[in-house]
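Q: Hi! First time doing this. I have a protein sequence and I read that you can turn it into a structure. Is that right? Here it is:
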Amino acid sequence: MLKNCLIWFLGLLLILSIIASCAKKPAVIKGTVTDEKGEPLGGAAIFSVPQRYSTLTDTLGQFSIEGVESGQYAVLAKLGEDSSLVNLGLIEPGQVLVTNVVIQITPPPPPEPEKPKDKPKPKPKAKTKPKPKKEVEFIDPILKNGEKLLLLSDKEYVKQFEIESSDDLVWEFRDIKISKLKFAGGRMYEGYFSGPSSKYYETAARRCIYDNKAWIYTHGPEQTPEEGREIYITIPLGLPGNVDIDSMVVFYMFPRFPEDASPGSIKFRMVGETASGGISILLDWQKIDHSANGQMFHKPMPTLGDNRKIQYLSLEINSDGNAVWDAFLIRPIVYFSVK
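A: Yes, that's right. Below is the predicted 3D structure, encoded as structure tokens:
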């Protein structure tokens, strides 16, 4: 009897140790990427959503992402300008999830027929054009106070932004002339757009001057997926090794619009990444809705440990799908000191 109890007890300990090790073990996402004919696609880029992990497929179209933390995930596969998104749902610790992603490859356009050459038209007489007024270069007031800081909405950072979104749009940087906004006191400069209209809609990140301050402006398109849209703006800080980040502060708001504008809401968070690949959530999801019309929010964030060496700052903006009035302003500032 005693021997049987001992065997039973040792077996229970073995089962508990196996369960404990599985609970700590990270998950694995792997699978195959093919075209619509079932042919494997090698060299396709694989990204997790949220954007924490990435890899490439091998010559057989296979990929594997190891060390995945538990949570809700989707997988985005890209090959050239074609892509496909697969929602994986909740991934548990130690789980090995296998998925297949099918990318529909866009065929090349047929060659255009040669057009008959028109006879050259006579050159019109040159008209004397008035000289355009020279735009005064805007300098944000916070850059004049002499503190050691990085204003990530300033002109020097905009062209370094890396833009992606959850609905597979192709974002392009365009250096567009100044344009006025629907809200009073707002002017937009260069930025990242998708689609035919770059004046107001389908704007992932654009430099905006509002209330005599520089902001990052985002605006959803007229129609978004039912699940909404998530935009990822990654900003390389470019700080040298002898610099420590002391603190950060971010201001964010809906600018003032007419009171009868459409309802809706946005979630916003900030993620930091060190040069060694360490990732931390600096500011967890903050949700604001259009009842905060014209109200400014700000969050100060002291930095400790590895966060003093952050090299990349990512802004994630999640729209609830009602994007008609999702004109969102973000103003991130990084304060630093030199050793």
